[in-house]
Amino acid sequence: MTQRVRIQNFTITQDGYGSGEEQTLERPFGNIDVMRLMGWALDTASHPYHGKGIGGRGLDDFFIRDFDNNIGAEIMGRNKFGPVRGAWENEGWKGW
Q: Cβ distance 60 to 41 under 8 Å?
Protein backbone atom coordinates (compact mmCIF):
# COMPACT_ATOMS: atom_id res chain seq x y z
CA MET A 1 0.00 0.00 0.00
CA THR A 2 1.29 3.46 -0.89
CA GLN A 3 1.89 5.83 1.99
CA ARG A 4 -0.34 8.86 1.57
CA VAL A 5 0.06 10.84 4.79
CA ARG A 6 2.91 11.14 7.22
CA ILE A 7 3.44 13.33 10.21
CA GLN A 8 6.75 15.14 10.09
CA ASN A 9 8.21 18.07 11.99
CA PHE A 10 5.88 17.88 14.96
CA THR A 11 7.66 18.69 18.20
CA ILE A 12 6.42 17.59 21.60
CA THR A 13 7.91 17.79 25.07
CA GLN A 14 9.12 14.64 26.82
CA ASP A 15 5.86 14.57 28.77
CA GLY A 16 3.74 14.83 25.60
CA TYR A 17 2.81 18.50 25.09
CA GLY A 18 2.88 20.07 21.62
CA SER A 19 1.84 23.54 22.80
CA GLY A 20 0.64 25.28 25.91
CA GLU A 21 -2.90 26.26 26.73
CA GLU A 22 -4.16 29.85 26.52
CA GLN A 23 -2.47 30.80 23.25
CA THR A 24 -2.53 34.56 22.56
CA LEU A 25 -0.99 36.98 20.07
CA GLU A 26 1.71 37.76 22.63
CA ARG A 27 2.34 34.08 23.47
CA PRO A 28 1.95 32.05 20.25
CA PHE A 29 2.93 28.80 22.02
CA GLY A 30 0.58 29.47 24.92
CA ASN A 31 1.68 29.09 28.51
CA ILE A 32 4.51 26.64 27.78
CA ASP A 33 8.19 27.63 27.88
CA VAL A 34 9.11 27.70 24.17
CA MET A 35 12.65 26.57 25.00
CA ARG A 36 11.20 23.48 26.68
CA LEU A 37 9.41 22.73 23.43
CA MET A 38 11.85 23.92 20.75
CA GLY A 39 15.18 24.41 22.51
CA TRP A 40 16.61 21.27 20.89
CA ALA A 41 16.12 22.78 17.43
CA LEU A 42 17.43 26.21 18.30
CA ASP A 43 20.69 24.68 19.55
CA THR A 44 21.59 23.07 16.21
CA ALA A 45 24.11 24.38 13.71
CA SER A 46 21.58 24.35 10.86
CA HIS A 47 18.59 26.14 12.40
CA PRO A 48 17.90 28.98 9.91
CA TYR A 49 17.08 31.68 12.46
CA HIS A 50 19.01 30.82 15.59
CA GLY A 51 21.72 28.26 14.77
CA LYS A 52 23.92 30.31 12.46
CA GLY A 53 26.47 27.49 12.47
CA ILE A 54 27.20 27.62 16.20
CA GLY A 55 25.35 24.54 17.43
CA GLY A 56 25.95 20.82 17.21
CA ARG A 57 25.86 18.60 14.12
CA GLY A 58 24.25 15.52 15.68
CA LEU A 59 20.88 13.84 15.13
CA ASP A 60 18.91 16.96 16.10
CA ASP A 61 20.76 18.92 13.43
CA PHE A 62 19.91 16.24 10.86
CA PHE A 63 16.20 16.70 11.60
CA ILE A 64 16.54 20.46 11.06
CA ARG A 65 18.43 20.01 7.78
CA ASP A 66 15.89 17.41 6.58
CA PHE A 67 12.92 19.55 7.65
CA ASP A 68 11.17 19.80 4.28
CA ASN A 69 12.71 16.89 2.37
CA ASN A 70 10.06 15.20 0.18
CA ILE A 71 7.23 17.35 1.51
CA GLY A 72 4.71 18.05 -1.25
CA ALA A 73 2.28 20.12 0.82
CA GLU A 74 1.77 21.18 4.38
CA ILE A 75 -1.69 20.77 5.78
CA MET A 76 -2.38 22.94 8.79
CA GLY A 77 -5.20 24.49 10.71
CA ARG A 78 -5.76 28.20 11.11
CA ASN A 79 -4.50 27.97 14.67
CA LYS A 80 -0.92 27.45 13.47
CA PHE A 81 -0.42 31.17 12.88
CA GLY A 82 -3.01 32.67 15.18
CA PRO A 83 -4.97 32.03 18.37
CA VAL A 84 -8.30 31.93 16.54
CA ARG A 85 -11.15 29.86 17.99
CA GLY A 86 -14.78 29.72 16.94
CA ALA A 87 -16.26 31.87 14.18
CA TRP A 88 -14.01 34.02 11.99
CA GLU A 89 -14.17 37.52 13.44
CA ASN A 90 -11.32 39.46 11.80
CA GLU A 91 -10.62 38.22 8.32
CA GLY A 92 -8.13 41.05 7.76
CA TRP A 93 -5.58 39.68 10.24
CA LYS A 94 -2.80 37.82 8.36
CA GLY A 95 -0.93 36.15 11.24
CA TRP A 96 2.34 36.74 13.02
A: yes
78: CB partners within 8 A, 6+ apart = 84
How far is residue 38's CA from residue 61's CA, in Å, rounded to a whole number?
A: 13
DSSP 3-state of 27: coil
Taking only the tens of pLDDT, the chain with its 96 residues reads: 676 777 777 788 888 887 788 887 788 778 888 888 888 888 888 887 766 667 888 998 898 888 878 877 777 666 666 666 777 777 776 665
The whole-model pTM stands at: 0.58
